Write the structure tokens for this entry.
Amino acid sequence: MTPAVSFAALLERFFTQRLMQQRQASPHTISSYRDTFRHFLKFVQQRVHKLPSLLTFEPSRRLMRR
């Protein structure tokens, strides 16, 4: 089984490596993604009653078999 990965670490890597380094996204694009993730994380926190900093990404076995 794959170990759980911190969602915060994945999100940080997405912003620093993917958007900023690889895609060289504009500051407006980065701000838009930031704001969207803020809304998403607030929604998730309300649904699962867990602080965003404690979220993990655990790939589903069902999804991994596809």
Remarks:
- Helices lie at 7-22, 27-48, 61-64.
- The first strand starts at residue 5 and ends at 6.
